Sequence to fold (224 residues):
Amino acid sequence: MSILKRLSVTLFSRLDNVVSDIENHDAIIEAAIEEQAKKIANAKVQLLHLNRRKSSVLQQLKNANEERERWQQRALNEAKVNESKALECIRRRKNAEQQIEKLKQSESEYVTAAEKLSRDIQHSEEELTDIKQKRQLLKARESSAKVRSEFTPNANANLKQAEKAFDRWEANLMESPLEIEEALLVDDFEQAYQAEEKENELKEELAQLIRSDQERVKKENANE
Fold:
């Protein structure tokens, strides 16, 4: 008995889970959409920071190139008058060149990271659009199925039962003495009208006959 009870509890638990999954599928999709939208928003913020840092590196690279050119020109100017100063200018130019190489490496890394993140954002947005479209399609199909189910024979069972109830009700009323009496009264009333209408027709026919005879008499008198 305990085994059957445990089996029953397990089956009902699984059934509850299935029903819960069916009822909450829209909520699950909505949560997935919100989560995906948040990830995209965060990724766009990261992309913005990457682009700002890349812009900063580009500005530093521009400054480093200008600095290298300045030290190179100074070295040329000092080479004719002061060799030690010229050598110091060359040393500083080399430092600027090393800084330029580091900045170029940083720029390349930022560009690569920004391009990858941009592709990821685009792919995520396409997925989000696809999820939303599928959700709308399934909701439309669900609504359509619900409407169709309301017009199926099984769904109209109550309506048919109501129609049968009306028929039985009307039959009972027709069988009641009051209904029969009212029906007879209606027939007598109709018959009275019909008799009166027939009598009027006969009177009209008689009047027409009299007029015709009077016209005949007038013509005969006129001929005499």
In short: Residues 1-9 have pLDDT under 50 and may be disordered.
